[in-house]
């Protein structure tokens, strides 16, 4: 049975197979959650098994009333277990004990498009694959939307499965601006050695004269893609206008939009705007969708300071560099471990001989102190006497008329007896006369 809004103007027709809808009641307003406006949330999936648990954690945390959100998934060209895991997670979600957790109508669609481009970063973002890849992605979006858009939907929210971080209130935050098409800024975190963070979605931009001239010079089937040196457009990108401290409600009119997170009023799609799977004004998919919406006079707005974060997926070069860094880390850790072991060994040796070393230092200080004291004493004696020392054997005494050593030389006998006494006693008279003569030589001349 249809979940549509029944018209009250055709009560005369009572056929059960006929339903009437008044689409003027599903235009989309700034306060959709108060008016119970339904949202169709669309998510294309391809080899998304690794991202689904994270995606469903985001679903559970959305603050917009879950019963007003219908979920739509398109699984295409997948080689992993995306479909089986999706079914399991949906079952758990809808059977949650919390009555506010289950969502509204859920649609799961399978459709392959022959996508040959691999899902690794190098393949998906390589320049050569962009045009064909974007055209096939546009087809997938159109198939999903056309199969699931109901007359009851006021809004359509496109959300990639590999968004890592986003506000739980994102639906209300975007809806509050009451724009026909609105997108947030999309960045991605990076390892510290790559700068910590980086603009991710470069598909949201304002048109430039350079890009218009470039488009005129290309073939009619050419598709311009942003972020590649092959197409220098010099467009102002929403991502590069981000200020972490800026007003998150600041609006910027844009021309191209990225597909990571798009909120659009359902009337935009009902009026014929879609995701071109061909070159429309030299663009395809979401960028061409923005161009087409602008062509049909719908408002297309980006929020430069309202940011959500895409999952970081390392490139081949990143992986190679990470491997080199891991090797350097192991070598550094091994060296640090070796140095630590050597330091511990040295510390043990130092602790073992600590007491002996202290004793040696103490004894050495004592010896030095004594040597300094001895040297000071010798210097003091030398300065105090003022003369050089004379050996005992060099001293002489005067005996009679001769001088002799005060201490006899080795082997020489000292005089003894009377002779010694006689010799030792000077002739007093003669000595006196000698002294008198010596003391006053003029007296002798006078006599």
Question: Secondary-structure map with pairings?
Answer:
Blueprint (H helix, E strand, L loop, with lengths): L37 E8 L6 H10 L7 E7 L6 H13 L11 E5 L10 H5 L1 H22 L4 E7 L3 E3 L4 H6 L5 E9 L7 E3 L9 H9 L34 E2 L7 E5 H5 L14 H11 L4 E11 L5 H37 L1 H32 L10 E4 L2 E4 L11 H8 L3 H12 L1 H6 L1
Parallel strand pairs: 1-2, 1-4, 2-3, 6-10
Antiparallel strand pairs: 4-9, 5-10, 6-7, 6-9, 8-10, 11-12
Helix pairs in contact: 1-2
Mean pLDDT: 84
Q: Looking at this structure, what is the CATH superfamily of the domain at 23-321? A: Spore Coat Polysaccharide Biosynthesis Protein SpsA, Chain A
- Rounded radius of gyration (Å): 54 Å
Largest sheet: 10 strands, mixed
Strand content: 15-25%
Unreliable stretches (pLDDT < 50, length at least 5) are: 1-8, 417-426, 430-435, 441-447
The number of helices is 13
Structural class comes to alpha/beta
Q: In the CATH hierarchy, what is the architecture of the domain at 23-321 at level 2?
A: Alpha-Beta Complex
Q: Please name the CATH topology of the domain at 23-321.
A: Spore Coat Polysaccharide Biosynthesis Protein SpsA, Chain A
Distance between the termini: 179 Å
Morphology call: elongated
């Amino acid at each position: 049975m249809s979940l549509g809004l029944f018209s009250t103007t055709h009560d005369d027709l009572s056929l059960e197979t006929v339903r009437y809808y008044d689409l003027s009641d599903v235009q989309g307003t700034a306060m959709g959650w108060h008016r119970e406006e339904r949202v169709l949330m669309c998510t294309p999936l391809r080899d998304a098994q690794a991202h689904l648990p994270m995606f469903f954690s985001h679903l559970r945390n959305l603050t917009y009333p879950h019963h007003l959100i219908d979920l739509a998934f398109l699984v295409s060209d997948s080689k992993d277990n995306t479909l089986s895991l999706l079914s399991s997670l949906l079952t758990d979600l809808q059977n949650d004990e919390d009555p506010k957790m289950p969502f509204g109508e859920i649609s799961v669609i399978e459709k392959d498009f022959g996508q040959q481009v691999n899902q690794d970063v190098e393949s998906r973002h390589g320049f050569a694959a962009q045009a064909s890849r974007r055209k096939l992605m546009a087809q997938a979006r159109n198939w999903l939307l056309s199969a699931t858009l109901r007359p009851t939907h006021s809004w359509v929210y496109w959300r990639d499965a590999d968004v890592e971080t986003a506000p739980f209130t994102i639906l209300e935050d975007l809806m509050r601006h009451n724009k026909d098409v609105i997108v947030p800024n999309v960045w991605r975190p990076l390892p510290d050695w790559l700068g910590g963070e980086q603009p991710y979605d470069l598909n949201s931009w304002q048109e430039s004269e350079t890009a218009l001239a470039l488009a005129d010079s290309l073939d009619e089937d050419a598709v311009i893609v942003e972020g590649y040196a092959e197409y220098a457009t010099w467009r102002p990108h929403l991502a590069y206008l981000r200020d972490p401290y800026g007003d998150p409600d600041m609006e910027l009119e844009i021309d191209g939009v990225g597909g990571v997170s798009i909120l659009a009023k359902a009337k935009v799609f009902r009026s014929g705007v879609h995701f071109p799977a061909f070159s429309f004004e030299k663009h395809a998919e979401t960028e061409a969708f923005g161009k087409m919406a602008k062509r049909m006079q719908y408002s297309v707005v980006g929020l430069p300071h309202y940011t959500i974060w895409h999952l970081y997926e390392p490139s081949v070069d990143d992986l190679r560099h990470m491997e080199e860094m891991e090797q350097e880390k192991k070598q550094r850790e091994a060296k640090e471990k070796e140095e630590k072991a050597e330091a511990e060994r040295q510390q043990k040796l130092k602790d073992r001989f600590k007491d002996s070393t202290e004793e040696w230092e103490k004894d050495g200080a004592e010896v030095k102190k004594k040597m300094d004291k001895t040297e000071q004493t010798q210097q003091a004696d030398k300065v105090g006497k003022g003369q050089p020392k004379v050996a005992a054997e060099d001293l002489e005494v005067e005996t009679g008329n001769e001088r002799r050593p005060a201490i006899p030389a080795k082997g020489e006998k000292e005089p003894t007896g009377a002779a010694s006494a006689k010799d030792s006693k000077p002739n007093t008279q003669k000595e006196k006369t000698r002294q008198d003569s010596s003391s006053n030589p003029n007296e002798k001349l006078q006599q």
